[in-house]
């Protein structure tokens, strides 16, 4: 049976961030994910999780200067000290919030920059991160982002993140299979799911091409949920979609799996 986590960065935007925990729990979610915890003390977030009987299943390292087009600094040559400080800060939050996995954001690669130098920097920073998180049993994830949503990110295809995870070659490094990005770049989702079981440790969903609820568009999610059960995927599925309107109004697709009050 699939296990869904509400995404508190994209869902329940009708209420302020700290109120989204209760909203997700009331809607029947038992777990949540979000982009970044860093604007809040870890103790406050832990209390919100505990009060609402929610597990936290994923967050990201800091994104760098988003206004300047950055999306992660772990692959930027010359920014290693900042990247490692971000990794250390993510570890502090991960321990306090008892999260089983953290997405390490790579970077966007400016036009004309040496992509291989970015990849090498990323591998070195990932070795640092893998060593820091391993004693705590926390996995690290890499995520491919399609070039329309996130132009010039270090990797766009699932096959590039799979290759990068193999190149990093650490036992706690896996990929994060966001099926929305995967459909826009790679397609053939059932082969990705079947052939790479065990290499991806988290899934995210949204319709394609519009990134709304998983009940419209070109991906047949009910079929994929059955396939995930069939192959034995036992990780979380994050609902990283932009609701068409009110979040609750769009949760009909989730009704069969919602925790009953
Ligand atoms: O953009 C996505 O997709 C994500 O999962 C973000 O959390 C990180 O880019
Ligand atoms: Mg994603």
TrEMBL record:
Gene3D superfamilies linked to this entry: Divalent-metal-dependent TIM barrel enzymes
Any one Gene Ontology BP term: glyoxylate metabolic process
Keywords: Isomerase, Pyruvate
All copies of domain Xylose isomerase-like TIM barrel, residue ranges: 21-255
Keyword Isomerase: yes
Keyword Cell division among UniProt keywords: no
Catalytic residues in the record: 143 (proton donor/acceptor), 240 (proton donor/acceptor)
GO molecular function, one term: hydroxypyruvate isomerase activity
Protein family: Belongs to the hyi family.
Protein name: Hydroxypyruvate isomerase
Naturally occurring in which organism (per UniProt): Pantoea latae
